[in-house]
Known about the structure:
The structure is a single chain. By secondary structure, the protein is mainly α. The chain has helices spanning 3-21, 25-32, 46-58, 68-83; strands at residues 38-39, 42-43, 98-99, 102-103. The protein is built from 4 helices and 4 strands; from the N terminus they run H-H-E-E-H-H-E-E. Strands 1-2 form a two-stranded antiparallel ribbon. It has a two-stranded antiparallel sheet with strand order 3-4. Helix 1 (3-21) packs across helix 4 (68-83) and helix 2 (25-32) runs parallel beside helix 3 (46-58).
Amino acid sequence: MNGRADRAADRLLFWVAHGLGALPPWLQLRLAGGRPVVRDGLTLDPGLQLLLAIRRRRLPRPVELLPPEVARRRTCREAAAATGRPLPVGSVADLTVDGPGGPL
């Protein structure tokens, strides 16, 4: 895709992700496959479970099998689609604190 098409696809993914996030948890779970994912006694958020199910159906090749640069690009695009535009930061400062082995 070219830059313009990429941006349009990213905007569409953003709105789809936000629309899915607005669905009730029981519906998100049903669309994701109907059963909650539980690991080590913790239940995965139904919205995240739905996004992962859609990703698995849309992109069947696992990210760990992709070349690193492709995996990074895909992960960045998916994160941007799920979160939207970054919020402005008022300021950034480097800080030093005392650690057990010296300054950190």
